[in-house]
Structure formats: C-alpha cells, structure tokens
Amino acid sequence: MRIDKLLWCLRLFKTRSLATKACVEQKVKLNGDFMKASKESGVGDQVAIKHGPAWKTYKVLNVPKSRISAKLLPEHLKETTAWKDLEMLENIAIENRLNRLQGLTGRPTKKTRRDMEKFLDSGDPVDKGE
C-alpha cells in the first residue's frame, strides 16, 4: 500500500492530501529514509512522523484494506517513540497552553508591534545598537 494512503488509513493524518504534503515536505520517514508519497509500505515497516522538534515513530503491525476506526488502531499500529521525545512534546504542549492563557498566541500582529514600538520610543531612550 502507498505510504500516504497507509498514513491516512491508520489515522495518523486527517486527510490523504495532508499525508502526501507531509511526505513532500520530508516530514515522514519510512525505515529511516525520506521517501515519496507513492512509496510502497507493508507489515513490519518503521514509520516516523515529525511533530514539531521531535519524531514520533510507529511500527506497522497490520495493513488495513481501508481507513479503520480508532478502536481497531492498536491491532494495526504500535507507537515506538522514545520517552525523551514524548516528554519534550508534552513540555511544549504545556508551555503553549500556558502562553495561550496569558494571551500570547504567537507572532504579534502589525498593530501590536506598532504599539510596542510606540511604547518603547515614548519612554527612556533605548540603545537600538546604532
């Protein structure tokens, strides 16, 4: 079965096009190597998917004929990710949750940036490295 279809059938990606896009962007490895979405995969293969800074690894136990329900997933797939990577992903999720609670959602908007620059310029002179 094609790797993009397998990733979709095993519920690792929401759509097959997202699985294909991840393969093109080299966010998926099959047995340690990057590959095209059309690469054939089967039972016993190691699949690694990049989630942020870490790689989540899985072992294919069984190849389904079509997309399977979440209840049947343990019969077809086994997660083999290292504890260190899982802990790092959990810490990042906690940090993001705390940032969201404080109102930090990522990159500032143009208006927020202008307000910050206005605030910095109105106060004491700040050395801007000039």
Structure notes:
The protein is an alpha+beta fold. The chain has two domains: 1-81, Structural Genomics Hypothetical 15.5 Kd Protein In mrcA-pckA Intergenic Region, Chain A; 82-123. The chain has helices at residues 3-9, 16-24, 73-76, 83-101, 110-122; strands at residues 28-30, 33-34, 46-51, 54-60, 77-79. A hairpin with a 2-residue loop joins strand 1 (28-30) and strand 2 (33-34). The protein is elongated. The model has no long low-confidence stretch (mean pLDDT 88).
List the helices and strands and how they pair.
Elements: H1 3-9, H2 16-24, E1 28-30, E2 33-34, E3 46-51, E4 54-60, H3 73-76, E5 77-79, H4 83-101, H5 110-122
Antiparallel strand pairs: 1-2, 1-3, 3-4, 4-5
Helix pairs in contact: 1-2
State the shape: elongated
Separation of the first and last Cα atoms: 59 Å
CATH topology grouping of the largest domain: Structural Genomics Hypothetical 15.5 Kd Protein In mrcA-pckA Intergenic Region, Chain A
Number of strands: 5
Instruction: Report on the biggest sheet.
Output: 5 strands, antiparallel
| Strand residues, percent | 15-25%
Main sheet: which strands, in order across? 2-1-3-4-5
Class of the largest domain in CATH?
Answer: Alpha Beta
The CATH architecture of the largest domain can be given as Roll
The structure class reads alpha+beta
Q: What is the count of DSSP helices, taking H or I runs of 4+ residues?
A: 5
**Average pLDDT number:** 88
Helical amount: 40-55%
The unreliable regions are: none
What is the radius of gyration?
A: 21 Å
The SSE order reads HHEEEEHEHH
Question: For this structure, what is the CATH homologous superfamily of the largest domain?
Answer: RNA-binding S4 domain
Integer tally of domains: 2
